[in-house]
Amino acid sequence: QSTTSSMSGLKLSGDKPIQIESDKLEVHQDQSLAIFTGNVSVVQGPTLLKAGKMLVYYVKDGKGEDKAGTDAGGDTQGNASAGSAMTGSANIDHIEVDDKVYIKSNDQVATGDRGTFDMKTEVLVLSGKKVVLSQGPNVLVGCKLTVQMKTGLAQVDACGGRVMMSLTPNSQK
Amino acid sequence: MLARSSEMADADDVLNAAADPAVVPARSSAFGRAQRHSRRVRVLKFAVPLLAVAIAIAFPVYSYLVTPAAIPVKADGSAFSDGKLVMANPKLEGMTKKNLPYSMTALRAIQDPKNENVIELEGIDAKLPIDAKTTAAIDAPHGIYNRETNTLDLDRDVTVKTSDGLVVKLQSAFLDIGKGNMKTDKPVEISRPDSRITADAMTVEDHGKVLIFDDNVHVNIYPAKAKAANKKESGDGVH
């Protein structure tokens, strides 16, 4: 059983400036991977993400936007994107967050145990024992939240259990 | 003629004396002494020149063997000042474990003869390979290079620029050139056209393959600029 609602704010996009803070950062150039650990907080525009750990995977062979450039510049492009793993420029492949995830955007808040942002399909998935999605007084509880970041469509699945939804009427203006 | 005649006179006296019986024993010992003397002279006449020749040959051979092989560090000029050897513009080159070339030059190198493995360097400019394609240029005003452990301890601010557009500013750095590692426990700032990282400490391992930033890490990514940069780059095909 699942319930959908629209959550336009909850998204991380690849083309807006991002500020990331954490206690520790490990960049593995050859695996195009950056591991942020310890009080990780990510701010992009109105969206704030907090988690215990965040893994950022970069596009390895630099398919990215300019497909044409792939074969000719494949090598250098690949190298460039591997190089960009240094600090993660545009071509992020996907992000995994772990260890108590909290996402807030304008008045919407979502919490869960783990989350993944897939930049290519622009889908955010938050999962865990208890995933809570709230907008102001309205609250949705389930075990999995899937947000289509492009459209803002959010879907909460109960995976077997029941989705708990409480709406406060006068807030539906 | 006068001289000759006097000699003739002496000869007659000697002949007359020979016959006199009292003189015979003294004469035989004198003769023996003379005989020994002449034998000694004959030996020395041969031995002394031989000895001289032997010495003449031995000396150059010995001095050739004692001189050391060529000294490896090339330097424009070197001088002794207050007990330390000071080299101008020293240059050191070598290959890292991954068989990639590294080179290090400095304005001045000061070496204490008592401990010649440790060299104090001023105005350092080092080129370290990150991988086959990219190299890192390291500039530092002052540092201590240890030849034995092949490490470089830079204790004042350091700038590292890599050929793929990365600029690293450190307040100190300890480099293990052979292994290609680096470590610093002072604040660090790393910037690229599209992003910037600051942290309070950093370690670089495996020739720059792995970077570890510790405490108070801030990362700012400006994808929009990066995108524009990529567009511009891919637009005119320059990579």
TrEMBL record, chain B:
<keyword id="KW-0812">Transmembrane</keyword>
<feature type="transmembrane region" description="Helical">
    <location>
        <begin position="43"/>
        <end position="65"/>
    </location>
</feature>
<dbReference type="GO" id="GO:0015221">
    <property type="term" value="F:lipopolysaccharide transmembrane transporter activity"/>
</dbReference>
<keyword id="KW-0472">Membrane</keyword>
<keyword id="KW-1133">Transmembrane helix</keyword>
<dbReference type="GO" id="GO:0005886">
    <property type="term" value="C:plasma membrane"/>
</dbReference>
<protein>
    <submittedName>
        <fullName>LPS export ABC transporter periplasmic protein LptC</fullName>
    </submittedName>
</protein>
<dbReference type="InterPro" id="IPR010664">
    <property type="entry name" value="LipoPS_assembly_LptC-rel"/>
</dbReference>
<dbReference type="Pfam" id="PF06835">
    <property type="entry name" value="LptC"/>
</dbReference>
<dbReference type="InterPro" id="IPR026265">
    <property type="entry name" value="LptC"/>
</dbReference>
